[in-house]
Structure formats: C-alpha cells, structure tokens
User: What shape does this take?
Amino acid sequence: MGLSPSSLARRAASSAGGPNGKIGGRSRMGDVTVRQLSNPRGALGRVISIVMNRRNRELIERCVDALEPRKGSSVADVGFGGGVGLRILMNRVGLTGIVSGVEPSETMRTRALKKFEDDVALDRLRIVNGSAAATSLADGSQDGIITVNTVYFWPDLAEGLDGLVRALAPEGVLAVGISPKAAQLGMGFDERAERVIEASELADAMRAAGLTRVSIAAPRGTEGRAIVRGFAA
Ligand SMILES: C[S@@+](CC[C@H](N)C(=O)[O-])C[C@H]1O[C@@H](n2cnc3c(N)ncnc32)[C@H](O)[C@@H]1O
Assistant: This one.
C-alpha cells in the first residue's frame, strides 16, 4: 500500500476531470477519499484504516503521552479509525485499566472487535458506537480521552467538545490531535463540507467548553501537527 490518504487525495485533486469531474470544490476521487476518511466503509475503508494507522501512529502516541495515563485508569479513543491508539492506550493503562474505543463507523468497530477479540473478552477494551457529541460513555467516567484527526468531521464543534467534556472525570484530560491547516486542505478538505481548523481556534473552543489549562504542543516527528490539551474542572 504505497499511497497515503493525502497522496490519494492529491492524486485525486490533480486528476480532476474538468468542470464535470468536480463535486463541490474537489474532484470525485478526492470526494471519495475524504468521505472514506470521515466514515471508513467496506473494503476501501479497511485499506484506508491501515494507512491511517501508519501515518498517524506518531501523533496518536504523543496524544497518549499528553494524557499521562496511570495504570488502572479509564481512558478512551474517540474516532479510533484503524485502532492503533487502542493498543497504545491498553499498553499504558495495563491489565487493570479500561480502554473505550468510540467510533461511528460500523466497519471500523467490526474490524476492532475482531482484531482485539481477546482484550474485548477480558473487558479491558470496550468498543462503543458513538461520536464526539454522543460518546455513549457514562458522564464523568474517563480519566483521559484522545481524539485524533476527527474534529474536521464533527457536525458541530461545540457539541462535540461538550460531549467529550461530559465524559471526563474531574481533572480528566482531553488531548485532540490535528494536522496543520495546509495539510488539511492538501488532504482535499473543502471548507464548505469539512471543518478546516487551526490549533489556536480549537484551543479557544476548548476553553469555551469549560476546559482549563489549555495548551498547544507541536511534537517533533509529526510533520507540523498539533496537540491541543485541556483539563476538566
Ligand atoms: C481520519 S480518521 C482518523 C482515525 C484515527 N483517529 C487516526 O488518527 O488514525 C477519522 C475518524 O473519525 C471518525 N469520525 C467521524 N465523525 C466523527 C464524530 N462526529 N465523532 C467522532 N469520530 C468521528 C471516523 O469514523 C474515522 O474513523
């Protein structure tokens, strides 16, 4: 699998077939790619999820670092996609911790249930149908939540953040990973359909959602990506 989602999207953009080849501001192929990133489905969704696991692993690891998870704690990855974050979180919280993987895509949930069958059977991993705005997690239940490269697809930013904050325990940590704005546009995002967002805008929204000590980090080795972190009151 030689192409990253961004190069697929770039190839799609460059292969736009004139006025009839465009859907909104991008080509049909770009549209397919972005739709797969927002809702991975079927065989192509499974392929995209493998690419995402590779491309996003470093940023996901840094987001997990930002949670500083303790052994035995309860943590969640919301919009886990290919699921690389679930394994990293399980390793950090150990056998006594509980990891919840929240995902609206049925294809991704099914894939994770199969891939992590043993962990699910041990109830150290829970795969949940949900979204940022409606996580299905109990209020105040999570010591930490990561969500990486998902914010572009939330229907409403404030509602998504409210949903995540509701699920956090007091002093719980939220770490949101995003790509730089130029990379978001490079992936074929259309500002009319996806949220193209700067880390500073996200930080303001997180403060407005009631998170405290909100900070932005740009970890090395993540191609200019950012982690915006905040703490529940
Ligand atoms: C680009 S993928 C990122 C997957 C993974 N977090 C990563 O970084 O590799 C976006 C993921 O967000 C999920 N998603 C879409 N809308 C969402 C929402 N409203 N709340 C949470 N996740 C959502 C998609 O199903 C998809 O798995």
Notes: Residues 56-231 form a domain with the Rossmann fold fold (CATH 3.40.50.150). The mean pLDDT is 90.
